């Protein structure tokens, strides 16, 4: 797909119109922008917001979203313009945000944010910046821990031994631009909270390099089998409801059996997906 579909180089936050109202633009001359599900922005001189839904935007189009969530219940905590950046809502908030799409109430996510802050030992208020900004140095460590592979289009995310989400992008550049927002914020918040105390590694009892290589092969195979066992059971009652379309692209919402999210298809083939374990 054309470069305009990419979340950092093609999609821009144009302005915050008012509480719960943000305007995005696809300034490219061609191509369709796929707005990442639950993307949010930390920006100077305006309250911080996140979207409840994905969207499709044509080249040169600006679009106003009136059902955005304000994620900053109190004034203050703004970053300098040079530090502006985007995030994806933590997975603990995503099911609630998806259910709230279409509802025009800028404060609608504050109770869930307050609950999340309280669970992490932070002041109980609807201010997501307590986690995203004040814990940013800790959360961004996940970007170096999890290596983005050349040509990578997507990933499965697990927190501990539980499936947390599946992310798929239309091209490797799109996925690379979204990578930090996913690993550090969408899934990194839960991983940081669940991270166990480091355990000492047992040394290999080998007498040669060949034996060491054989042990590593066995360990990798065992680890792959363990990760495969974490996958959720085949889903049963799942609903896929089309939300909007643009040319040959179809945006649909998926719900059911502990999963939720949105998918974009082109001629029936998925080109974007953000599916997560939901409550």
Strands of the largest sheet, in order across it? 10-11-15-14-13-12
Secondary structure: number of strands = 15
Distance between the termini: 33 Å
Q: What letter string, H or E per element, gives the SSE order?
A: EEEEEEEEEHHHHHEEHHHEEEE
- Strand content range: 25-35%
What are the low-pLDDT stretches, counting only 5+ consecutive residues below 50?
Answer: 76-83
Helical element count? 8
The overall number of domains is 1
Q: Let me know the largest β-sheet.
A: 6 strands, antiparallel
Mean pLDDT comes to 86
Helix content: 25-40%
What's the Cα radius of gyration?
A: 20 Å
Class from helix and strand fractions: alpha+beta
Overall geometric form: globular
Protein name: ARPP-1 family domain-containing protein
Domain ARG and Rhodanese-Phosphatase-superfamily-associated: 19-276
Pfam families: ARPP-1 (PF20208)
Organism: Nonomuraea insulae
Short summary:
27% of the residues lie in helices and 29% in strands.
């Amino acid at each position: 797909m054309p470069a305009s579909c990419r979340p950092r180089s093609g999609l821009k936050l144009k302005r915050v119109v008012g509480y719960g109202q943000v305007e995005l633009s696809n300034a490219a001359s061609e191509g369709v922008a796929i707005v990442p599900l639950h993307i949010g922005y930390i920006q100077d001189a305006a309250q911080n917001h996140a979207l409840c839904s994905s969207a499709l935007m044509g080249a040169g189009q600006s679009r106003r979203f009136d059902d955005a969530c304000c994620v900053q219940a109190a004034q203050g905590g703004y970053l300098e313009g040079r530090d502006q950046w985007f995030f994806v809502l933590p997975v603990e908030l995503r099911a609630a945000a998806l259910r709230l799409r279409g509802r025009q109430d800028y404060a609608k996510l504050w109770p869930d944010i307050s609950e999340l802050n309280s669970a992490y030992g932070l002041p109980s208020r609807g201010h997501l910046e307590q986690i995203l900004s004040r814990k940013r140095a800790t959360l961004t460590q996940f970007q170096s821990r999890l290596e983005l592979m050349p040509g990578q289009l997507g990933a499965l995310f697990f927190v501990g031994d539980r499936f947390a989400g599946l992310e798929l992008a239309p091209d490797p550049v799109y996925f690379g631009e979204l990578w930090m927002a996913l690993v550090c914020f969408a899934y990194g918040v839960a991983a940081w909270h669940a991270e166990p105390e480091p355990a000492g590694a047992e040394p290999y009892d080998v007498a040669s390099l060949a034996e060491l290589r054989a042990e590593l092969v066995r360990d990798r195979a065992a680890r792959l089998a363990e990760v495969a066992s974490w996958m959720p059971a085949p889903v049963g009652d799942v609903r896929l409801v089309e939300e909007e379309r643009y040319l040959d692209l179809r945006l649909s919402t998926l719900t059911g059996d502990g999963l939720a999210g949105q998918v974009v298809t082109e001629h029936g083939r998925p080109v974007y997906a953000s599916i997560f374990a939901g409550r």
